[in-house]
Amino acid sequence: MASGGLQLLGFVMAFLGWIGIIISTAMPQWKMASYAGDNIVTAQALYEGLWMSCAMQSTGQIQCKVYDSLLKLESSLQATRALMVASILVGLVGVFVAVTGMKCMKCMEDDQVKKMRMAVFGGVIFIISGLAALVATSWYGNRVARAFYDPFTPVNTRFEFGSALFIGWAAASLALLGGSFLCCSCPRRETSYPPTRGYPKNASSTGKDYV
């Protein structure tokens, strides 16, 4: 029962992490314009994401522009895109594999060993998905931080971490933790001992004595 509860908890956490990775990938707030300099007065907030850049006016109106050409983008941004998309696809495979191995599902009930291995394999896939998302978000965040502290970067063009980065970090952590719980939900094999053989019963006396 304890392993089943840990398995269910791990799957829920990993699934929520996978959903968070999708949300983070689609959001345009990967970095936002910084207003840390002096005498900077602006009526709009600028955001940049993996797929588009947006400007939000003081009236609340948002205008977004999708990046025109893939080849004109920086190689680091293309790599971040690829890692996040790969994380989503790998996580999708992990969902199907882990669901097949869940104890609450009736699939593969006739072979509990294979069912258990499927759950563990699903956990490993979720860990790979979380690692890909963690590398992508950390790499992007490192680029933003380096550009912010670069003295040659103009103050008006500096960016800070956006909300999508924090969601991506939290989602990757959930996927890693949930996948680890799925891997740890496999119960340990108990040492099996051969069945004890009973002693043969004495033959009942027939009441006849032989000389």
From TrEMBL:
<keyword id="KW-0812">Transmembrane</keyword>
<feature type="transmembrane region" description="Helical">
    <location>
        <begin position="79"/>
        <end position="99"/>
    </location>
</feature>
<dbReference type="GO" id="GO:0005198">
    <property type="term" value="F:structural molecule activity"/>
</dbReference>
<dbReference type="InterPro" id="IPR017974">
    <property type="entry name" value="Claudin_CS"/>
</dbReference>
<feature type="transmembrane region" description="Helical">
    <location>
        <begin position="161"/>
        <end position="184"/>
    </location>
</feature>
<keyword id="KW-0965">Cell junction</keyword>
<feature type="transmembrane region" description="Helical">
    <location>
        <begin position="7"/>
        <end position="27"/>
    </location>
</feature>
<comment type="similarity">
    <text>Belongs to the claudin family.</text>
</comment>
<dbReference type="Pfam" id="PF00822">
    <property type="entry name" value="PMP22_Claudin"/>
</dbReference>
<keyword id="KW-0472">Membrane</keyword>
<feature type="transmembrane region" description="Helical">
    <location>
        <begin position="119"/>
        <end position="141"/>
    </location>
</feature>
<protein>
    <recommendedName>
        <fullName>Claudin</fullName>
    </recommendedName>
</protein>
<dbReference type="InterPro" id="IPR003548">
    <property type="entry name" value="Claudin1"/>
</dbReference>
<keyword id="KW-0796">Tight junction</keyword>
<dbReference type="GO" id="GO:0005923">
    <property type="term" value="C:bicellular tight junction"/>
</dbReference>
<keyword id="KW-1133">Transmembrane helix</keyword>
<dbReference type="GO" id="GO:0005886">
    <property type="term" value="C:plasma membrane"/>
</dbReference>
<comment type="function">
    <text>Claudins function as major constituents of the tight junction complexes that regulate the permeability of epithelia.</text>
</comment>
<dbReference type="InterPro" id="IPR006187">
    <property type="entry name" value="Claudin"/>
</dbReference>
<dbReference type="InterPro" id="IPR004031">
    <property type="entry name" value="PMP22/EMP/MP20/Claudin"/>
</dbReference>
<keyword id="KW-1003">Cell membrane</keyword>
